[in-house]
Amino acid sequence: QARLVESGGGLVHPGGSLRLSCAASGFTLEYYDIGWFRQAPGKEREGVSCISHSGGTTYIKDSVKGRFTISRDNAKNMVYLEMNSLKPEDTAVYSCAASHRLRAPTVQALCVRPEADYWGQGAQVTVSS
Predict the structure, then answer these.
(1) Which one, out of 31, 79, 84, 100, has a CA that is 20 to 30 A from the CA of 13?
(2) 10 SS3 class
(3) pLDDT tens profile 10-19
(4) Is 22 exposed, middle or buried (0-12, 13-18, 19+ CB in 10 A)?
């Protein structure tokens, strides 16, 4: 069955870095746009960064632009989120989601109004001194 599993979360000091990984199985990743979303306690889920099925187009939320980078390796069925210069306000549960490439008109649309086919269970990222 289709599955997404996140890894790489943890506790990091402000200014530190983490690399989140999203492992896909049970479906053909190259047919799906992928998004990274986060939800902090008491806040709504928000799209952080999204990438097209080919990897050719990306969207990055303004508040993380220049600090976060999304990438994917379809041959390895993996999607990554490199997070640098982390801030306490980046603390949240980070989840990856897969949306068939024909579903959302753009990757920005996926990030803003996700209609995903599959969701991972999430990885906690805590930025604290």
Answers:
(1) 79
(2) strand
(3) 999 999 999 9
(4) buried
The predicted-structure confidence for 66-125, as pLDDT tens digits, reads as follows: 999 999 999 999 999 999 999 999 999 999 999 999 888 889 999 998 889 999 999 999
Nearest to 38 by CA among 72, 78, 86: 86
Two structure tokens written together for 22: 């999203």
Q: Name the amino acid, one letter, at 108.
A: Q
> What is the spatial distance between Cα 125 and Cα 11, in angstroms, rounded to a whole number?
6
91 φ, ψ (degrees, to nearest 5): -60, 125
User: What is the separation, in whole angstroms, between the first and last Cα of the chain?
Assistant: 40
Residue with tokens 């599959």: 118
Angle, CA 36 vertex, CA 59 and CA 21 arms, to 5°: 120
- Cβ–Cβ < 8 Å for 18, 12: yes
Cα–Cα distances (Å) from 113 to 81, 109, 129, in that order, read 19, 6, 33
